[in-house]
Design brief:
This protein is an alpha+beta fold. The protein has three domains: 77 residues, Phosphorylase Kinase, domain 1 (2-Layer Sandwich); 192 residues, Transferase(Phosphotransferase), domain 1; 111 residues, no CATH class. Helices cover 33% and strands 10% of the residues. It has 16 helices and twelve strands. The strands form five sheets. The chain has a four-stranded antiparallel sheet with strand order 1-3-2-8. The protein has a two-stranded antiparallel sheet with strand order 4-7. Strands 5-6 form a two-stranded antiparallel ribbon. The longest helix is centred in the first third of the chain and has 20 residues.
Amino acid sequence: MKEMSKVKAYIKKSLASILSEKNILTNLHYSLLSNLNFSFQDKEYLYLVLDYLPGGDLRYYINRKIIFNENQIKFIISNLLLSLKYIHNNSILHRDIKPENLVFDDKGYIHLTDFGISKKLKKGKNIYDKSGTPGYISPEVLLNKPQTFSSDFFSVGVICYELLLHKKPFKGKNKKELAEKILYRDIRLTKKDIPDNYSVMMGDFINKLLKRNHRERLGDKGIKFIMDHPWLEEVQWDIIEAKLVTNDSIPFTPSIGDNFDNNLANKKEEIDMEHYEEYLKKINDSGYFKSFYFNYYTIKNNNVREKTSISHKFTTTTEGIKSTQSEGENDLNNSIDKINRNISFYKSNSHNISNFDNISEIKKVNTCSQSNFEKKFKFNIKAINNPNTTIHKNKIYEKQELNKFNKINLFNNFNFQDENFNEEEINSKDDINFNVS
């Protein structure tokens, strides 16, 4: 939970930034972001309740001299690029890509967070203001030139350089000297600059992201050109996006628990207490934050820009699943029945698939088109043979255990379509594994 003092924000002139972050997050929801679940306020504070990410941020591990191998760096950068692809498709420029804003979940996926200085790009309106973290901002920001999505990609190059060589590409004794290095230093890694056990293609990837002229920068014509770079050619983007990488295939496992700096966590800024009540009254009387309240789980599905979200609230019972909202209830129950009928099909035809440990994952879809619906299933044969088994969101659940789950957790971020079952198409698909080595 992100707690923000109204008075402190007023003194620092960041009230608009806080409201902007809340408004941006209200319209975003993605598997590799730190998503907003609730926002609310009391007399003195504003609160953002975000996804729980217990793995710590990337800066924590860099500061502790953790050496990431190439496979781990590639996975981190792949996660970040998918997040940027999503927010850029929603016309959002992040503007503060840095290790502190890349946070691990408990599995090892990287989530992008902190949209405090992000901006929505609007047609015919350019962004010029100098915002960002020294050392990670692009040359066009320093030169007060229009900022584009390519500005975020420059920051990706800085992070990749830092992970490879364990130092930042641009250093200075002060902000002015640092800015001069960003504006005038040309990054050109050669084969001799690349440490052993790292590929030359990684150096080429960094060089092209750190081009000072954004028109020459990799990704200026679209993030697809970054994702198609030879260094990332083996990355299975859809598998990462859907978080279907098996635990033993995720390159880096974060530490859970002791993964933050107590000195930073306990640091408190001074507040002008002499005028505290005056400022607080002024803020609350203005009504500036009257629309600050937000509850993701009560908004309609079409108000969340995530193709596979179901935002209805649900309740569970040991006998079955009942929706607390009437809208979409029939489609959802029909989908569940369909999946359970498919389980029955597998039980009755288990002799035909006994040689398979897994069948490919159910593919997320959001259209009713037969051509877009890829019927892929992956479940454990022993679990299927259990008469008390129900399947949902690529997992096996015992019916008697359903009461342990809130239905939001079972159905959020997934959308079944009631299409005809095609055994041949499913059996023709190979199992999918993540491998970027």
